[in-house]
Amino acid sequence: MSELWSAIIFTVLFWGFANEVTSVREAKRFYGLFSLGANISGIFAGKAATMLSKNVFLPYLPYGNSAWEQSVLFLNMTILLAGVLIMVIFRYLNGRVMIFEPIASAKKASKVKMSMRNNFRYLAKSKYLLSIALIVLAYNISINLVEVVWKNQLKQLYPNPSDFTNFMGQTMMYMGLLATCTSLFLTGFCLRKFSWTSNALIPPIIMLVTGICFFFVVLFDHYQLPYFAAFLGSSSLLISVILGTVQNCLARASKYTLFDATKELAFVPLSKESKLKGKSAIDGVGSRLGKSGGSFIHQILLLMFFTVSAATPVVAILFFSVIGLWIGSVFSLGKKFSTVTSEQENLDRNPQESGVMKATNPLEKPV
Length: 367
Prior knowledge:
79% of the residues lie in helices and 1% in strands. The protein has 11 helices and 2 strands. Helix 2 packs antiparallel against helix 9 (236-267) and helix 10 (272-305) packs antiparallel against helix 11.
């Protein structure tokens, strides 16, 4: 359910709303700022998780027999309050800020049917949407494959659940700081100055380079690595956890900045029907299918090798194969995006021929 919250509320509804009211030119300018808000929230979320996961038991509270049980209560209360705030802001935007003005010659738009079976059938007929789907699937499968191995190492280092949660909270905070700095200083600049393909290639390249470093340490820790770790006053397990943490922070930061921005930018020049059906199929189901696929792979490997550590070599091979598919899909979609964007720019020069609703831009007109 928590995974569906991030997929449906943030990915489908928020970015779907942003894509409806933003042009390609505006998206290159403002999508970096949209990501900035999400990344700043990661800093606060990490800090909150760290503070609420401390081993402090409050005996005067009516709930919880341990510090861990009480921290779970506080974390869920924070999530519920944030959800209510999201609904209030979204209602305000639709009721008071976004004002739609129909074009005189435009016909009333027909309601788009949102049957999931029809959406997948529509997706299968569009090579453009299939390329986006492959990119989303590749990211979610690859991040799931490497994350399970990293968390297996992390669990060995921090067997206590409070210590584990505290470390994950600190990781989330550093991830938010990194993603915030990237969104503030690099994302908007890169989207305006470089091509879509160049920007979309950055996340898989980061995953590839950091994945090589992480899997090298995990797979070859018996080749002189313990002596190197002892020289540093550390252990090979701690080094693998640190490299996995760096890999996760960089991969997630690139996902929350350039990956999300370029993926959503690819939806902007499409028709309303393609946006609705494509996003519901790709983000609503495809992203979860990618993570489920990664989990399914790990379950099959566990049946064959019995432990995550023994299955790690096969996981590494699959990880790098998926990264290769990701890079190939980016090149394929980049060519299609250039063609569709050119057609959209020609359409924008004659807006009355498009037969769509024109939205008043709240960024240009004071409310």
